[in-house]
């Protein structure tokens, strides 16, 4: 079955994955707070991405740039002039909507709309104690800007050869007119982005490599591959500087919507920043070749949309031993808890002691281990299933005799007896 948004949102709140931002004050539209299990899930996703796209490759460098940048960055990139969505206001109830998300009439009251105007989505702030136009800056609306302005620093310090990429994971902020669909469209979110610099004639091959790499990533993180679709963005719909763009869409419970983007951005960004900053943003094309401004392939991944797609792909309901249950079929790499350790009985000190020693030994090797001694074993299994823990390990009286424990597998409910020395390799990721 495919989960509804209600299924996902209620499980996330109930089990400490996600809460409404500023909840005790009635919330703040477009903001969400990750709880203990949510932050573990999100960190695991970001770590997996970093390992796959940065650390396991020889042609990638990571950075972590400032969120607040010199406003000239966003003038050069075109965001000050053009990073806007069309806004309409209902003449009757005064509610505002994104013009491309509504029809002719106000969906709230049926009133008619005024003129469409462009609304810039960058959050403004003031730098320093003076609140005037000279102090205006912005919270970055995407992480890519921090990569382009560090291009020269990377070339000068790391001496890379073309092709090479620079990757960054971090927060981005957009004053979305209508934040909606849980963490799909929020005003503060995270991105994982790569700017991959190539010789102009290489772009087609590298674009194809990243198209395939995105599908590898989808599989690795545990997003249902049959729910991911490529949308070739047509000439009229692409940004003017992009020669090719593919949107990777996912069948979310509320419809097929953009999950990731892959764009060939030519030399638009480096040329714009070179012109505006007066710095030469070029590098040697190859051994003994003259300097060129590289062209760019940009794969862009939303962290929060990944979290939502992983949750939607993992949500299951079934019946086990005559009882209905809900579980998250996370893969081992992203599961916030890799295994839970229980003593069979809570009131037997020898079992509790033995289980606790096992718990500490495992936790030293694999930190995301949980202890649980509340309620009966059946209830503990259900709780762990619901947060997607792949294995439950029970210490019983036999463990005291023969150093074995029961391992129960989440998806099948199968139980087997294993030597406790084997446990790290069973649960290890
Ligand atoms: P949309 O058309 O859905 O507004 P976009 O085309 O503006 O998205 P990009 O500018 O390409 O998005 O941003 C790159 C990625 O960042 C998106 O593919 C998405 O995963 C993520 N992203 C963009 N806006 C948001 C948002 N408001 N909330 C959460 N994630 C977002």
Fourth-tier CATH superfamily name of the largest domain: Bira Bifunctional Protein, Domain 2
Radius of gyration: 25 Å
Q: How many angstroms does the end-to-end distance come to?
A: 28 Å
Low-confidence runs (pLDDT<50, min 5 residues)?
A: none
The level-1 CATH class of the largest domain: Alpha Beta
According to CATH, what is the topology of the largest domain?
BirA Bifunctional Protein, domain 2
* Ligand list: adenosine-5'-triphosphate
Proportion of strand residues: 25-35%
The CATH architecture term of the largest domain is: 2-Layer Sandwich
Number of beta-strand segments: 23
The helix content is 25-40%
Sum up the structure in keywords.
429 residues; BirA Bifunctional Protein, domain 2; binds adenosine-5'-triphosphate; 7-stranded mixed beta sheet; 2 domains; alpha+beta; 23 strands; 5-stranded mixed beta sheet; Rossmann fold
Fold and architecture overview:
The chain is α+β, with helices and mostly antiparallel strands. Strand 4 and strand 5 form a beta hairpin. The protein has 13 helices and 23 strands. It has two domains: 5-69 and 155-312, Bira Bifunctional Protein, Domain 2 (BirA Bifunctional Protein, domain 2, 2-Layer Sandwich), CATH 3.30.930; 337-427, Rossmann fold (3-Layer(aba) Sandwich), CATH 3.40.50. It has a seven-stranded mixed β-sheet with strand order 3-9-10-16-13-12-11, with helices on both faces. Strands 20-19-21-22-23 form a five-stranded mixed β-sheet, sandwiched between helices. A three-stranded antiparallel β-sheet has the order 5-4-6. It has helices at 5-14, 36-55, 71-76, 79-82, 144-148, 151-158, 203-221, 268-277, 303-314, 349-365, 377-386, 397-402, 423-427; strands at 18-20, 32-34, 60-63, 84-89, 96-98, 117-120, 124-126, 136-138, 164-173, 188-198, 228-232, 244-252, 255-266, 283-284, 291-292, 295-302, 315-320, 323-328, 339-343, 369-371, 391-395, 404-409, 415-419. The model has no long low-confidence stretch (mean pLDDT 96). Helix 2 crosses helix 9. It binds adenosine-5'-triphosphate. Adenosine-5'-triphosphate is lined by residues 142, 174, 176, 185-186, 189, 191, 258-261, 300, 302, 304-305.
């Amino acid at each position: 079955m495919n989960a509804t948004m209600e299924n996902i949102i209620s499980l996330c709140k109930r089990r400490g994955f996600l809460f409404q931002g500023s909840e005790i004050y009635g919330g703040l539209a477009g903001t969400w707070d990750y709880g203990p299990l949510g932050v573990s899930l999100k960190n695991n996703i970001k770590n997996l991405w970093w390992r796959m796209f940065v650390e396991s490759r020889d042609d990638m460098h990571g950075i972590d740039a400032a969120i607040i940048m010199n406003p000239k960055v966003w003038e050069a990139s075109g965001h000050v002039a053009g990073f806007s969505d069309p806004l309409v206001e209902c003449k009757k109830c005064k509610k505002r909507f994104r013009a491309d998300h509504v029809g002719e009439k106000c969906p709230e009251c049926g009133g008619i709309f005024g003129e469409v105007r462009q609304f810039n989505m960058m959050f403004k702030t003031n730098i320093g104690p003076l609140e005037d136009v000279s102090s205006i800056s912005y919270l970055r609306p995407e992480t890519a800007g921090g990569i382009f302005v560090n291009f020269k620093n990377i070339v000068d310090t790391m001496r890379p050869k073309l092709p090479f990429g620079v990757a960054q994971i971090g927060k981005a902020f957009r004053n979305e007119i209508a934040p909606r669909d849980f963490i799909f469209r929020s005003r503060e979110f995270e991105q994982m982005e790569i700017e991959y610099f190539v010789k102009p004639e290489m772009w087609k091959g590298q674009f194809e490599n990243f198209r395939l790499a995105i599908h590898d990533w989808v599989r690795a993180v545990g997003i249902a591959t049959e729910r991911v679709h490529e949308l070739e963005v047509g000439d009229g719909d692409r940004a003017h500087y992009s020669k090719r763009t593919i949107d990777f869409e996912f069948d979310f419970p509320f419809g097929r919507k953009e999950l990731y983007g892959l764009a060939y951005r030519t030399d638009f960004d480096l040329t714009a920043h070179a012109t505006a900053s007066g710095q030469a943003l070029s590098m040697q094309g190859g051994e003994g070749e003259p300097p060129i401004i590289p062209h760019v392939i940009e794969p862009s991944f939303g962290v929060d949309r990944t979290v939502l797609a992983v949750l939607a792909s993992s949500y299951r309901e079934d019946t086990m031993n005559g009882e209905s249950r809900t579980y998250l079929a996370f893969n081992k790499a992203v599961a916030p808890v890799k295994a839970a350790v229980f003593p069979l009985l809570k009131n037997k000190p020898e079992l509790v002691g033995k289980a606790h020693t096992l718990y500490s030994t495992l936790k030293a090797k694999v930190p995301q281990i949980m202890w649980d001694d509340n309620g009966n074993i059946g209830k503990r299994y259900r709780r762990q299933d619901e947060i997607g823990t792949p294995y439950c390990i029970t210490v019983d009286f036999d463990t005291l005799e023969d150093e074995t424990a029961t391992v129960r597998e989440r998806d099948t409910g199968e139980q087997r007896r294993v030597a406790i020395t084997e446990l790290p390799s069973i649960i290890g990721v």
